[in-house]
């Protein structure tokens, strides 16, 4: 076999999202009508106008040396803009030295995990989970350990605590959550933080709490997203502008280390090193200069809220068991009949693509990614209705 045995097994159990993406591409070319694709989280809306203005301004800047390597952590001016914005959001005194610009949230996760774990260390994740976490953790020799969420998909501090062993190095949460759209309340994150603090009393180094938060600004029915920074000192947040500015293709994000984190200077130095040695070297230069100018901008949240409300109301009327998600752009209903794979295949035969819960470690459910145009939603509703009755 020419390739790694490990990657070979990964390829055989290829992610459902990828499979559906490929199925969708084939269907789009078969000439048999529209495809209603709810399978991936690729926002179908343009970034805010100020993003394009900042992009033009940066492109026209004639100062020399703008396309060179820079410090692995990124430009100071960008990290200062991020630190100022985070200090305002979280009422904590972030400084640029606590910010590492990364290649998206995915880059931030890998940079952080590589910096914190040794081979064999355990990383607790919550089921259902973002499918890439297993790969990210195993990239660095870590061992993913699954903890159940509550029946309403909130964090379950008891379940997480039961999974803690002497090898636990990191608890990785994702708020707002993909695939459920649930936003963990501050109260539950605080409870988790308190449990971790208790465990730290018996350890020579603390467990780290990482929040993968690329959807943190996509929250509805509340002003701000609850945060790990208020709950626990040894906290890191990886995020990006993939979703809040609608620019996932530009690969720009950052890792933020809590000002209260134990020896944050050493953690930051480790992350600068791993950002480099994972081959990222630094986050894209042009985009760093652009996002420094638009930290307070946001895509049109109403665009998402309307779609969520339309879908949740319509699906509930049809008899689906749909929770009312408060964040991100996902809905995670129960699959009628209980067999998520059979249900997804039935939808696919009617040209609607959604992802089975099995792909997120949670059979019996399916995920709808509603970052799509209204005509896709309206075109698919009769199919959802038909599938519900099958
Ligand atoms: C939970 C979660 N984490 C990380 C990512 C990766 O984000 P980025 O495109 O910023 O790397 C995604 C993308 O969909 C996601 O849903």
Describe this structure in words.
- By secondary structure, the chain is of the alpha/beta class.
- The protein folds into two domains: 5-47 and 299-389, Alpha-Beta Complex (Aspartate Aminotransferase, domain 1); 68-291, 3-Layer(aba) Sandwich (Aspartate Aminotransferase, domain 2), CATH 3.40.640.10.
- Helices cover 40% and strands 13% of the residues.
- It has 13 helices and twelve strands.
- The strands form three sheets. The protein has a seven-stranded mixed sheet with strand order 2-8-7-6-5-3-4, with helices on both faces.
- Helix 6 (132-139) links the parallel strand 3 and strand 4.
- Helix 3 (49-60) crosses helix 10, helix 5 crosses helix 9 and helix 11 (301-318) packs parallel to helix 13.
- The chain is globular.
- The termini are far apart.
- The mean pLDDT is 95.
- Residues 41, 104-106, 130, 174, 178, 212, 214, 240, 242, 248, 253 line the site of pyridoxal-5'-phosphate (PLP).
Q: What is the end-to-end distance?
A: 44 Å
How much of the sequence lies in strands comes to: 5-15%
Strand order of the largest sheet: 2-8-7-6-5-3-4
Question: Strand tally, please?
Answer: 12
What's the gyration radius in Å? 21 Å
Please write the string of helix (H) and strand (E) elements. HHEHHEHEHEHEHEEEHHHEHEEEH
In CATH, the homologous superfamily of the largest domain goes by the name Type I PLP-dependent aspartate aminotransferase-like (Major domain)
Number of helical runs? 13
- Biggest β-sheet: count, sense, barrel? 7 strands, mixed
Unreliable runs? none
CATH class of the largest domain: Alpha Beta
Count up the domains: 2
Apparent shape: globular
CATH architecture term of the largest domain: 3-Layer(aba) Sandwich
């Amino acid at each position: 076999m020419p390739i790694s045995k490990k990657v070979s097994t990964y390829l055989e159990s290829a992610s459902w999202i990828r499979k559906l993406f490929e199925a969708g591409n084939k269907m789009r070319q078969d000439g048999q009508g529209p495809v209603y694709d709810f399978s991936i989280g690729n926002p179908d809306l343009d970034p805010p106008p100020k993003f394009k203005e900042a992009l033009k301004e940066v492109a026209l800047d004639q100062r020399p040396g703008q396309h060179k390597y820079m410090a692995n952590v990124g430009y100071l001016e960008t990290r200062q803009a991020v630190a100022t914005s985070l200090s305002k959001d979280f009422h904590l005194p972030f400084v640029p030295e606590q910010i590492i610009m990364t290649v998206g949230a995915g880059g931030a996760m890998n940079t952080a995990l590589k910096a914190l774990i040794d081979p064999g260390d355990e990383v607790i994740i919550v089921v259902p989970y973002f499918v890439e976490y297993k790969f990210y953790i195993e990239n660095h020799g870590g061992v993913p350990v699954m903890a159940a969420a509550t029946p309403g998909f909130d964090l379950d501090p008891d379940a997480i605590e039961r999974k803690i062993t002497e090898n636990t190095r990191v608890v990785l949460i994702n708020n707002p959550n993909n695939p459920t759209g649930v936003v963990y309340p501050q109260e539950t994150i605080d409870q988790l933080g308190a449990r971790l603090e208790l465990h730290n009393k018996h350890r020579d180094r603390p467990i780290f709490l990482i929040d993968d938060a690329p959807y943190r600004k996509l929250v509805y029915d509340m002003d701000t997203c609850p945060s790990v920074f208020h709950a626990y000192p040894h906290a890191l947040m990886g995020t990006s502008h993939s979703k809040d500015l609608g620019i996932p293709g530009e690969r720009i994000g950052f890792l933020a280390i809590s000002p209260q984190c134990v020896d944050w200077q050493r953690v930051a130095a480790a992350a600068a090193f791993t950002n480099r040695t994972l081959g990222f070297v630094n986050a894209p230069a042009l985009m760093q200069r652009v996002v420094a100018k638009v930290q307070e901008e946001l895509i049109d949240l109403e665009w998402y809220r309307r779609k969520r409300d339309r879908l949740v109301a319509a699906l509930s009327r049809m008899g689906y068991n749909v929770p009312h998600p408060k964040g991100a752009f996902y809905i995670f209903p129960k699959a009628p009949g209980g067999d998520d794979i059979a249900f997804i295949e039935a939808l696919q035969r009617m040209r609607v693509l959604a992802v089975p819960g099995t792909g997120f470690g949670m059979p019996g459910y399916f995920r709808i990614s509603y970052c799509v145009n209204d005509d896709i939603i309206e075109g698919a509703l009769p199919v959802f209705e038909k599938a519900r009755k099958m």
